[in-house]
Amino acid sequence: MRIRLLANAWLPLVLFLSAHSSLRAVDHNNVDAGRPLSFDDAEAIAFRERAAEIGTGGIYPKGGPAGLAFSTEFLYGFALNSHLSVDLDAAAGGRAGTPEKDFQVGKLGLGLFHNFNREYGNAPAFSIRGDVALPTEKGAKGVEIRLRGIASKALIQYDRLHLNLDGIVTTAPETGERRFRPGVVLGYSKPIGYPRSFIRTGVAEVSLQTPEQKGTGPVMSLGVGLRQQVTVRSLFDIGIRSDVLALDKAPHEDIQIIAGFSTSF
Amino acid sequence: MHSLTRFWVTLLMALGWAFSSLAQAQTEPLPKREGIPGREEAPGLNTLPPLPEDLPGWFNNKGKNHIFYKRGPYNFDIYNIKRLAYDLNAVAVGHSMAYEDMVTGKAAGLDTETFERINWVLNHPPKFMPDEANVSPTFGRKYGVLELVFDWTHILHAQTVDVLASTKLSEAEKDREIQALWKFYFESVPYAISPLPMNMAFLDGQPYSMAFRNKYPKVNGLFWGYHWLQGAMYDMLLSKTLPQQRMIYDVLGDRYHAIELYRTNRPFMPMFAETSPRFSEKYPYIANAFDNLHMLHDMVNDILASDWIPEPEKEKQILRAIWIASATAHQGERPGDVKEEGGLHDHRHMVGMPGMGMMKYATEDVMWMDNMGWMPTGDCHHCTMPLPEGEEAWKAPTVSAQGWTMRVRCPLCARDMAAETKGAVIFHIPTEDPLKPVVIISDEQGNLTTDNPGVLFLEEAASHRKCNRWSSAFSSRKAFEEYVATNPEFKDAKPLSFEEWAAVEVSGKKPDTYVKPEGPEGNPYDKAQDDETQAQKEEE
Q: Which of residues 102-161 of A touch B (CB under 8 A)?
């Protein structure tokens, strides 16, 4: 996982993946960061489940050439309501916030996700995930640590809201970069087609992230997407995001188009 | 305070307020349940049994606790029989839709709107199995532990079917894997369903029992219709080749969609041993667990449909129903044990059917079977001679017709019994090789076809006391000759080809050994049958 990229909405390469499974099938209604938007719901993958995900995306940064992002991730449910993840991403071409255009492999990410409770009565489901991005990319120093608190709650019946609160710490910020960056994402999910079709979920989000560069203001993004089951064990997802507001000259992207595939085994 | 920091603090406070308001808003009571006109007088609340004290901790579980299914090369092999796979996918939404409607104040529409919704899915089955939790989120928030119990046993259901439908495993491997799946199911969690036979009169004799089927007969008919399918498919799949399985499902699936889903006159839910006696005999612990699961579904339906029970008491009664059906409640008990006759710890089973608990109004020897009347459970349903048991049980042919599957003693009993029934019939006829049973289908006109035209029959009719010796099927000429050589009384017998055997005229007489079984005194079925016969006579 590449935390810096995730935290800054203008570089959405981070496609953290994770195929959430219900008990017998990959479940399109359990939403994970990166597939296709940036928010998580509060459910871990099943105990002993393995999941692999790949994703790619087109990036159209403001005032720069277009680029491509790639991601891959492996997850393992190592205990009840908990999973571990390992991920790696890469980018090529233009991207916001950096003059870099060459193909570049990103940081290696390690993550831990734990769900404290399912949603019951009026209590939301609560989870926490911690991620560490190791400095495996060329020239990188220090690590980035992100803690994300997640609460998922039914809105009416099938609609759900997912509040993600992020705190990101960079242990070795470069000159002019922030050491700590908060972020928040409010996600929404709803199965589409009920009660006649049971294979897809629509997702949407609004997020606010703090850019790395000091002196720049927060960036607000909007996104919509779709997760659709394509085989008994796999999902296809597609989404589009846009940084609709960037204060104080914060770098941002006009449009990001994301597509991915998740499978559990 | 820095402006960016102030921005974030304000934003987080606002989001916190909004999320807590959302939770608060949902504490408003759900819409009032609409009453159903015409319901019978309600029993008093004091008739409800108390919730057992000291329930295990998992009854208060608040975790999602999903466990991944057992890995194996057979997973999802039910898709080898696509039509059945899709039908099973559709089944996943039935109870979920009804549960969700019942806990969101829409119970009054169960036999109309909900029925139509479920029926549409059953007739337009999805290609992938829907997640029941997604279909009934409100129900899941309220009865999460129950959902956990259901889901876990549904996985066993799905995986055992996958094993049986697999073309990658040998019969021996399938047998081992089914046992391994049971172990995985039973030992991985504390909330497995009891594998013991349970007394059905007790389970269906609670103060709230039968409320659902009386109020919502059409939806209940759908539930029992697909419980019929979930039972009947096991014998269809057991010890069969894929072509045989497909051939049988062409018949079974037609019946499921045309008749079984829409029956509202069943006296009781379909039992596994009634619909898959061979599977139930071989894996009685699994058959019992599935029957107990289906009874738990019925008990929950009945509780939710009982308007006279207040909501908090419903929650308690549902926990009690889970407790009753759970393996935890019966630890240390064994099949056949009777701590209290007719009660929670009555684990007797019907004679010859270890995979079926004592039925309502039944004795251990005879039970009432829909469309058939009183039937002996340990004897041939045609000639009343004892059926093979234990290691020899596989030698009994079966006849499936009119929704039931019955074991008989020999191929002749199977053919004659089929001739007495209406509609399509499926025969399972074992040969000398347990791995080579013959499947025969009889159409509506009684024309027989088989997947194995090379099969040969011995039929030297005599008294039915020895019909299992003079009526047999063989997979080859060599096997026939070996049998004749070791049984000199048949040394002059000529093997019958399938066509010859199928063309033998049925005598129409009852076998010389036949004894008409009778039910216990005072049972309600005899009167119902007499009334029905009388009504038919008057109509004529």
A: 115, 117-125, 151, 153-155, 157-158, 161
- Distance (Å) from the C-alpha of residue A136 to the closest C-alpha of chain B? 31
Quick one: fold of A3-264?
A: Porin (2.40.160)
The CA distance from B464 to B413, in Å, is 9
Compute, in degrees rounded to 10, the torsion defined by CA atoms B133, B138, B142, B148: 0
Specify the 3-state DSSP secondary structure of B533.
helix
CA distances from B228 to B253, B259, B403 (A): 11, 11, 8
Q: Which residue of B has its CA nearest to A81?
A: B65
CB-based contact A123 B68, cutoff 8 Å: no
User: Are B66 and A47 a contacting pair at CB < 8 A?
Assistant: yes
- Please give the model's pTM, rounded to 2 decimal places: 0.90
Report the pLDDT value the prediction gives residue B27, as an integer from 0 to 100.
42
Does B154 contact A48 at a Cβ distance shorter than 8 Å? Answer: no
Closest residue to B15, CB basis, from A43, A44, A184: A184
The verdict on a CB contact (< 8 Å) between B11 and A208 is yes
Q: How far is A96 from chain B (nearest CA, A)?
A: 21
Smallest CA–CA distance from A43 into chain B, residue: B64
Instruction: Please check the confidence at residue A12 and state whether its pLDDT lies above 90.
Output: no
B62 contact residues in A (CB cutoff 8 A): 117-118, 120, 123
Structure tokens at B523: 């049972």
Which residue's structure tokens are 């603090």?
B9
Residue span(s) of chain B under CATH 3.30.450.410 come to 379-503
The C-alpha atoms of residue B122 and residue B89 are separated, in whole angstroms, by 9
CB distance A24–B133 less than 8 Å? no
Q: Are A58 and A66 in contact (CB under 8 A)?
A: yes
Class of the domain covering B379-503: alpha beta
The angle that helices B311-325 and B144-165 make with each other, rounded to 10 degrees, is 40
User: CA neighbours within 13 Å on the CB side: how many for B71?
Assistant: 7
Nearest Cα to B99, choosing from B142, B35, B59?
Answer: B142
Higher-confidence residue: B271 or B16?
A: B271
Closest Cα partner for A22 from B96, B292, B288?
B96
For residues B263 and B225, the answer to whether their CB atoms sit within 8 Å is yes
DSSP structural state of residue B77: G
In chain A, where the domains are located? 3-264
More confident of the two residues B340 and B88: B88
Q: Residue B409 contacts by C-beta under 8 Å, 6 or more apart in sequence?
A: B380, B382, B383, B385, B387, B388, B396, B397, B464, B467, B468
Q: Are B358 and B350 in contact (CB under 8 A)?
A: yes
Tell me the average pLDDT across A108-122.
Answer: 96
Question: How far apart are the C-alpha atoms of B380 and B467, rounded to whole Å?
Answer: 11
CA B295 vs CA A224, B286, B299: distances in Å = 43, 14, 6
ipTM: 0.86
Closest by Cβ to A46, choosing from B68, B93, B121: B68
- The tens digit of pLDDT for each residue in A233-262 reads 999 999 999 999 988 888 777 799 999 999
Q: A220 or A92, which is more confident?
A: A220
pLDDT digits (tens, 9 = 90+) for B68-104: 999 999 999 999 999 999 999 999 999 999 999 999 9
Q: Residue A203's beta-bridge partner residues? A: A189, A225
